[in-house]
């Protein structure tokens, strides 16, 4: 049966987030010929209409309400809850981003819906939609579906194919009533200058305690730059003050699913694997042949990262230029 699916899309650094396009693609699959509705809370929402149309949204609700510029997720929660009440969707999909993780539980609760979070796959079988999500730090997968009521799920970035489905998109100006905000964000100070969001990066070069210093990250940065990727780190490297905690990948850091993950001087502790073991291809560079990271690596290089990484960068630059 066809369904009405609502997707909360997000803009970051002047671009629609990839996970929003992934969610729109999933929405088209689960809608099964029904209606796909996108929501965008942005002061210059019109700039993204063309992109949203390309990925199959029949309707786009835009909200430019000034209160949303306070940046608090409280305002977003109020706006999204009101939109859900207005649209009455069968399915709600949100990216498992900082915003999505923050607002989804409270919006779902306000709408008296359940929530399946951090899904890495969605299967549809006529009536039933089954969500797949990792559990036990990625060691097992759980399949869940809703018996009744509105279906509400968050999708982990980089796990779904993005498919273009051009349609005509009708634009609806939505004016939510934002009241009684208890907090207002006055300033956002970004710690990292990198343009690539770690959780959406297709290629990650990550360093561990084996990089030995903050300067030790330089060859990793050069490799990441040559590949158009982002730099990440183990908690070991963050704890040793070699880099900022915003780069930490793992159980208590970011969970990433890039196409290529290059682990340099990382031993492969279970808590680190929890954040990266679902990467499509894993390359490990470690001078200890017994390091546990080699057990999950697709390709392993036993050697000193300070010799291997610059060599790799040099050779890759030749291949990528030609
Ligand atoms: C509750 C909890 C949560 C945690 N959450 C996280 C998390 O989110 N993310 C995370 O990463 N960790 C997490 N940890 C910490 C985790 O247990 C490990 O301590 C940490 O991952 C180790 O980091 P590392 O691999 O960089 O360092 P180490 O284990 O010290 O490994 C360094 C590696 O570098 C290699 N090496 C050294 N020099 C070189 C060289 N020149 N060239 C090549 N290789 C070299 C060594 O052989 C070694 O394998 C958590 C721990 C706990 C208890």
Description:
Strands 7-11-6-1-4-5-12 form a seven-stranded parallel beta sheet, sandwiched between helices. Strands 14-13-15-16-17 form a five-stranded parallel beta sheet. A three-stranded antiparallel beta sheet has the order 8-9-10, covered by helices on one side. The chain is α/β, with parallel strands linked by helices. A hairpin with a 4-residue loop joins strand 9 and strand 10 (140-144). The protein is built from nine helices and 17 strands. The mean pLDDT is 93. Helix 5 (218-227) runs parallel beside helix 9 (305-321). It is globular. The chain folds into two domains: 4-173, HUPs (Rossmann fold, 3-Layer(aba) Sandwich); 198-321, Rossmann fold (3-Layer(aba) Sandwich), CATH 3.40.50.1220. The chain has helices at 18-31, 49-54, 73-87, 98-110, 218-227, 235-239, 270-276, 293-296, 305-321; strands spanning 4-9, 11-12, 15-16, 35-41, 59-63, 91-95, 116-119, 121-125, 128-135, 140-144, 151-155, 170-173, 203-207, 230-233, 260-264, 281-286, 299-302. Bound molecules: flavin-adenine dinucleotide. Residues 208-210, 234-237, 248, 250-253, 265-267, 269, 271-272, 275, 285-288, 291, 304-306 line the site of flavin-adenine dinucleotide.
